[in-house]
Design goal:
This protein is an alpha/beta fold and 255 residues long. The protein has eight helices and six strands, in the order ααββααβαβαββαα. The longest helix is centred in the first third of the chain and has 18 residues. It is globular and about 50 Å long.
Length: 255
Amino acid sequence: MAGRPEGDVGDPAVKSASTKLAALTREIETCRACPRLVAWREESAAKPPRRFAGEEYWARPVPGFGDPAARLLVVGLAPAAHGGNRTGRVFTGDSSGDFLFAALHRAGFANRPESVRRGDGLTLTNCYVLAPVRCAPPDNRPTPEEFDRCRPFFVRELALLPNVGVFLALGGLAWASTLRVLSDSGATISRPAPAFGHGAEVATDAAGRGPITLLGSYHVSRQNTNTGRLTPAMFNEILARARRLCAVPGRPRIR
């Protein structure tokens, strides 16, 4: 792909980006820009449910996680109060993460099907996962202002993932946030903005990044997976499409 390094983490461009990602991660983890979110993440840690009593909570913003040479970027919403806010890793320690990482393992993006805690040995290949809002919000509902304050982190993180060309947005809010960030990053986005739907697909391009495809899926939340609105087979199909896109000439390649 034009303007995109094609190597793995040994590629100088990817190695440099990995170092910068580590620095950005440290910056994200110290953010206190949203008073409502700071209060909620800390209150959730101070008053855990009985099943997590005695555990030490992360209770800080949760950075992205995955392969710095990733071709696929999975975009969620925000950490769960007793999931990522507890474990310190996005989509880790709750039912949404159980569904997501099992599917990523089946699709060959993860080395194991469970994501339990930081340091559990889970690694991702050709995949990176992030949430546009980095702190757990009350009722899992970030405000528009909280999305806006967090968006620069998304823009900067994406800029340090030079191989990404396929985006998978989990839910309508992730879809809207990804479109906004792609526009901020120089991608051509039609107006009115493309509508979200499960299986929705938008192809565009961005200077220095080349062809981009945005895919939509229902969120992997329990409200969707327990009701059958999103089944493993449906999500498998979306991930299979993502893998095919990563292998198309002129797009990022699976190594």
